[in-house]
Structures
1.
Amino acid sequence: MVVVMKSEATAAEIAAVINKAEAVGVSTHPIYGKEHTVVALIGDLTKIERSVFNAMAGVQKTVRIQEPYKLAAHDTHPGDTTINVGGVVFGGPDVVVMAGPCSVESREQILETAWAVKEAGATVLRGGAFKPRTSPYSFQGMGEKGLKLLAEAREQTGLPVITEVMTVETVPLICEYADILQIGARNMQNYGLLQAVGKVQKPVMLKRGISGEIKELLMCAEYILSNGNMQVMLCERGIRTYETATRNTFDLNAVPVLQHMSHLPIVADPSHGTGAWELVGPMARAAVAAGADALIIEVHPNPDNALSDGAQSLKPERFAALMGQLRLIANAVGRSIATCPHAAAQNGRVREALLA
Amino acid sequence: MVVVMKSEATAAEIAAVINKAEAVGVSTHPIYGKEHTVVALIGDLTKIERSVFNAMAGVQKTVRIQEPYKLAAHDTHPGDTTINVGGVVFGGPDVVVMAGPCSVESREQILETAWAVKEAGATVLRGGAFKPRTSPYSFQGMGEKGLKLLAEAREQTGLPVITEVMTVETVPLICEYADILQIGARNMQNYGLLQAVGKVQKPVMLKRGISGEIKELLMCAEYILSNGNMQVMLCERGIRTYETATRNTFDLNAVPVLQHMSHLPIVADPSHGTGAWELVGPMARAAVAAGADALIIEVHPNPDNALSDGAQSLKPERFAALMGQLRLIANAVGRSIATCPHAAAQNGRVREALLA
Amino acid sequence: MVVVMKSEATAAEIAAVINKAEAVGVSTHPIYGKEHTVVALIGDLTKIERSVFNAMAGVQKTVRIQEPYKLAAHDTHPGDTTINVGGVVFGGPDVVVMAGPCSVESREQILETAWAVKEAGATVLRGGAFKPRTSPYSFQGMGEKGLKLLAEAREQTGLPVITEVMTVETVPLICEYADILQIGARNMQNYGLLQAVGKVQKPVMLKRGISGEIKELLMCAEYILSNGNMQVMLCERGIRTYETATRNTFDLNAVPVLQHMSHLPIVADPSHGTGAWELVGPMARAAVAAGADALIIEVHPNPDNALSDGAQSLKPERFAALMGQLRLIANAVGRSIATCPHAAAQNGRVREALLA
Amino acid sequence: MVVVMKSEATAAEIAAVINKAEAVGVSTHPIYGKEHTVVALIGDLTKIERSVFNAMAGVQKTVRIQEPYKLAAHDTHPGDTTINVGGVVFGGPDVVVMAGPCSVESREQILETAWAVKEAGATVLRGGAFKPRTSPYSFQGMGEKGLKLLAEAREQTGLPVITEVMTVETVPLICEYADILQIGARNMQNYGLLQAVGKVQKPVMLKRGISGEIKELLMCAEYILSNGNMQVMLCERGIRTYETATRNTFDLNAVPVLQHMSHLPIVADPSHGTGAWELVGPMARAAVAAGADALIIEVHPNPDNALSDGAQSLKPERFAALMGQLRLIANAVGRSIATCPHAAAQNGRVREALLA
């Protein structure tokens, strides 16, 4: 950290800064410039509050040299983290595609969608049972009944399941059913929830908040990692800017930036990122070209009647066509789209019978 | 709601929109323009998902005419809501000033600050016992011990206490000690928490999220109100923009905008809003001039050693000087600064003795 | 400036940074930390491009310690700048109020408005003759004819005139008629125009761009100042954020921030800042409470028929009422609203006759 | 347009809105809802100012149904516009790559770069001779001397040249030398300049302003188109958001969004978009995958010594490697990278001799 003193700072004020730092075992290095004095602090700064120095007399500002996250940072971790979910590997050479409806709405809807996305080549099934909704008067999800339907879809298709967890109290329940826990954008900084999922041994996909800075996302991952759960993946899903032509501004730059900064697998969510199904195809292709390790895409058999997020959901046939394009893009960047490790799961089953 | 069809929409697509609306008892009013057809929907739309229409074939966009919050809206509520906290009235003619440290750090610190802000004229004591911190390695608050110290400060000074509640599990605990529950900016859309505080009968101060739209803030208030707790006040505390000269962009416009839209009392937090103590004075004065019903201001006896938010805390003597200025501004807009209803609370006590 | 090296930077890369800085006469001060080396640069850095260092091998980032504007900065200028426009003083103890229509639309409209704002207590007349409009199909202003009408209004009322200059070619023309040149938000970084108004000796009011950072605004002022024109005032007029409840987010924080950073007078424009006449009153009062040196407010005798910006214009009677409130707020912060230095200008004239 | 009345609007206020619209030949369609009345306006609205209606008594807001640009819109133009620059076609099946240094710095630099980018496969040369710089103390470009060097590079390599025009006065000069005129982000809304380039018959590349909305970009294109110049291409180059991990937020979503809205060719500038050379490769690949018609990329033989934008410039060898990747991505989306139509230009020349 560098403490920049005001041009009118007194020798006593400079000395106070030096003393405060050295009192906690940090060594200091004052540099007397023509107009400003700056004091560089060297040593273990994790216990130092920057705001303490900002509040001191004569201080103009402080500048962070090193970010305070450790476990999420690339430097301190040799190589990239891979996360294996029932044979599907995130963060390895293959690009994983997760797909499914925004919300579980009925047995028929989730089973039909699960089979459709599996046939198109997805290897993880997404679906919400507990839904955070802007209005208290909107559909709030099917709850545990939705979880049971997801489990049934997994049993039939062999696809592992990712679903959102919204509250500390429901972590154990969700863990019974889900293969990957999703922390939604609104809860990126719900620290109680982050600590709770940090204490279970399930992979977690942490979504960037709608106004989350990239370094804040890493600090939130740090909350999970520092509680002992090392299976964290990060998801870009669109940020809030002044532009209203898209529902959010899908910040694809986050993909290569996060890969420079962290060893954790990076997921892109072009459905929430853009909010419009016409944009999902181009931005999904772009995400693979930019290096994303996984995609999560909303698919609904009948978007016109979806209880949530219909406008950004692909129909199964459009999703299948997109998968073909994604394979070509993945090849162009030297990767493949991950394929299903449990081919057996679908053999010997008659899909139509199961849907009956 | 108005559904705008694409210029190339077919008669069948227009009919589908009409049918879907009428199927849920909403009457429709199609208007055939030169280049676009629009369909106006009239009736009770609270159950309608806009996204359903956005997802339909031939639809270009939907436009909301009426906002979906009801209980928070001005139209449906005659006059303004006032909230009485032990004789201190929010939303009435007087402007309430709440003050105190960011975090409770020690018995001496909170008692000294409580007496200092009371003597300067504040009528509510603020102080955090459970702290949401960006880094898992930072000071996380004193917890229940901090709550007990706040209660002791209240007993001594007679000042009601406002403190933050972060998790559903701690709502009952905080309710034992606090007079006003604070929902922090990071939790504005933590719907489980909003529902929980909606079920208790304590006043709640709901802070706008760092990227919360004003209408989202009202929707979040609706979550509390619709659960039965009608004592909600709204707090502007700075939003995230591209500007970095201030820690946040304190959006004072929200004060008159919210007063047009809602009957709930409006609080301004210039300390978090700006993040720098030099700006707290000008922006506190501005907030009263703009019509805020209450202010919440961070005061610390020794900001250089504060465990959090030192840079934005006022020293007690600066706070006292500011209170004098605020009285003049309040008078200039035809109001007064609220005074302490429990003068007795301090009579017959020797402050020095109590601090011993 | 501080150059932060990557943790894996080699000794040769560090030496290259040092050599490059010393080659242009800047002395260097390397500090070898546990994980990072940083190199502090001391001396005259105005000729150094930060991006040169950012581009060097082994460099992680550079951090600016001192801002590159000099003439606009408070440090290098003893006391505050005052600008005297025909006896009306900006930046002194009194708060100047400028008012008038968005656009000059007709002789009757501008004369009626000029007299109305003068009678209410404004001391400068605003009015646009050349208008930057988002659509090429919108009214683009009356041009030179509008300037002549402004001059006639000045002659009648004695009020100095502020009007916008949009292009280099029209600077001489505008200078013939205007007392203060306005650079609009869209042209904040039109460097050719800034240089052109820097070469004339007329006061300039420079508006912050809709996404202008405060330090960029000061750099743009520097373009004018460094060309020789020292009579520059800075105007906050709302920035673009994600919030759509107001047309722009009027960033009142800029007023005290700019007063800390610069000696130039600060103007607040609550009309463009908020975009809604109902908000102009509260935010104008707030601006005076926050310390603005001047206000610029849109007034139109008949906003329903204004050719531009009707929605944010006050009717004359509302403006007059607001002036009364502003006097009270100004007194509450130890200032007054500036009064007309040319009382003679209106004596002996019969307003009705002139309007005939 | 739809005019939404306040719930308390009177019959007279509703009638006034209807009368005002019908007075200019627009037909009206009032709809009396349970809580609000809305008035739909049908007909030619290009002459109507929305703000006039916003300003009327009883009006809550107005909602635009149709955007006010016509010439730039997809609806009114059959098929996509292609622009042919000396045989290089923008907006056709092939993806055009433009490359070169930020600024022309010397004869050697520009010739070396021109040959390098040509050999790697670029078909247009970029280079700035007049540079908009944030600081008045920074290098401002070589001016006409730079233009002559660009012309020499074109003569040698056969590559057409794109360069920025900053002021109305220099339009004729730039037209003498350039094949494509570039309007920079800071000048997106410099309407005088847009009109000036609208009156010449040279292709124009219009960059999105740093806070330009997509629909504003189209309105600015409309300024050029409506002056008679139909050869306009639109360039996404990063917008300003709260995120600081990248210099700007490269908004790749703009590519498919603009392709839905407009028939004009779309260019992506990942160099300015991200501000960091490490991100240029991933985001250039992503841009082609998302459907961009052209890329513009900064290449410098020695970024460490560039006079501007070194940090975001690729070295020639990195650029050559990227071109190989871009060919693969282009093929994956069914396109090719455009190749040089003037193969003859380089035949029979000895590059080394020319550089001597």
2.
Amino acid sequence: MTDHPTLPVVDPLDRAAISAALVRWGTRAKPPGSLGQLEDLAVRLAGISGTCPPPVVERPAVVVFAADHGVVAEGASAWPAEITGLMVHAMAGEAAAINAFAATVGAEVLLVDVGVAADLTHLPAVRHRKVRAGTANLAHGPAMTVDEARTALAVGIEVADELIAAGTDCLVAGDMGIGNTTPSAALIGALAGSPADAVTGTGAGLPADQLPHKTALVAAAMERCDAIEDPLVLLAEVGGLEIAAMAGLYLGAASAGIPFIIDGVIAASAACVADALVPGTAARGIAGHLSTEPAAVVALKHLGLDPILDLQLRLGEGTGACLAIPLVQAAARALRDMADLPAA
Amino acid sequence: MTDHPTLPVVDPLDRAAISAALVRWGTRAKPPGSLGQLEDLAVRLAGISGTCPPPVVERPAVVVFAADHGVVAEGASAWPAEITGLMVHAMAGEAAAINAFAATVGAEVLLVDVGVAADLTHLPAVRHRKVRAGTANLAHGPAMTVDEARTALAVGIEVADELIAAGTDCLVAGDMGIGNTTPSAALIGALAGSPADAVTGTGAGLPADQLPHKTALVAAAMERCDAIEDPLVLLAEVGGLEIAAMAGLYLGAASAGIPFIIDGVIAASAACVADALVPGTAARGIAGHLSTEPAAVVALKHLGLDPILDLQLRLGEGTGACLAIPLVQAAARALRDMADLPAA
């Protein structure tokens, strides 16, 4: 294993709090099991926080990590790389989908440039932590060095630590990076042991006739990963800078005992990386929604997570995870505030 | 047809606003279709409001109608009838699931007694509009008179009118009534033309070995409905007082051009009744979630509605519909606030 001085410690879920939550649900004023998946969710939140009832999320934050991908040169995306920087502009102007959703659910939005090819230093709303100006083309070699992967991971951990210290009690990692479903598919395929054609999808609108080409890119990348055992080396070989930072954000949240909500396929690949780096991390995550990308299903199954929403979203930015925040709040609030069963 | 002086007029969806919403989605800063079901939802909201972009819901309200059911005497419920009144007490004390959920999403809760067997007049938080102290046993004859059904329906319409006049811009109807999955199943079976065994479920926890008895009750009730053509007479024959009031609330919302969100199987039966009384009403409704009760699937299919959430909820009270409110808000907000596609 490569040396990982920055990896935080993640505790297993608190079994006593989980047991207490199960007992508490059983005596609330409702038919047993009638809150379905929300009951499981509140039990999970108890295990994450180590308390029963678990605290109700009050200050959620969405951190959107943006970066570019050299593999776009291979024609693996329906969109040109320039869109990454332009969408960060839109987010800085509060005019992207994630801004509308975060405002709806009362979440703070933080934008972090960890690797956009364009210069964004003129945008004060963006935190400038560029590790490099986009990855190298993973079709021709490693996407980045192991040091760069470690640095991007550390950015995510640091942002989590800082937000949590300031009061954030639930974290969502969002992504903006044209071309990033290709590295995500390769990471998920490699970590979940799933073949390229089971993890490659049309992403943000690739025409179906170009899917075989993208699948071949993913297959070739995965083949190079066969001999790699260290998740950080895997991340450097076929990953992305925003994916590394997202994984870091999850590690920071898991280490601090606050829930993190996983978005779509990019986020799921980051969760797979985080869990590979520090086993037990994914058990502290909540799957916000089921993306239409095939690798999302593979990743969530690999991580043992059951998604809350299924709205056929495939936008990224943290949108699907953000929409799950009120459900996470409602589950914990019901467990906390509901009366005992009335005695008839 | 029985005379229905109180039925409001419901306009068809606004086609121009629907077209404008479809065009507007096509030019937002995201891959086409990437917001999945939320795009359909915002288009529907445009059709309901007659404007594009449609207004973002700011003052949602949940109205819980409570009533008892004579059919409980047949052993069709896992719970004694006394629970209805006790749960209204819990709601008045803000200690039920619907209170926790409504507080999470910022919705007002209004409690209306349209037919609870117990005397609740000492509860100031409850609006007292009792039509009768629970229905008659529908296994032995009509659940109520046609006049009583009309009166309960009118209560729902009046409450909607009053709330909308005071600024409510989205309505959820919730139910509290031990035994009410039996009338709901009979109504849905009769209106959707579905056999008793396809619409009868275990409700709030009926043991599986008692399901055949409940199914036989529903089948016998539906058989009496074969000759009934008037939805109001059907409602009186096998319905419930809270179901009638919920249908009225939907008619009031639909008539006023504001969205209403349908909860589980009880709410779905009320939506079927409302749509039978005034065709076009259901097209202005939003299916908040998919209940685990089999009749819910039948009803939503009959009404042509696609549920937003699927969390295996089966609690009622308006809980599932309430949880869909932030998604309804997010859909409209995204359509309103998102920038045009950036020019790369």
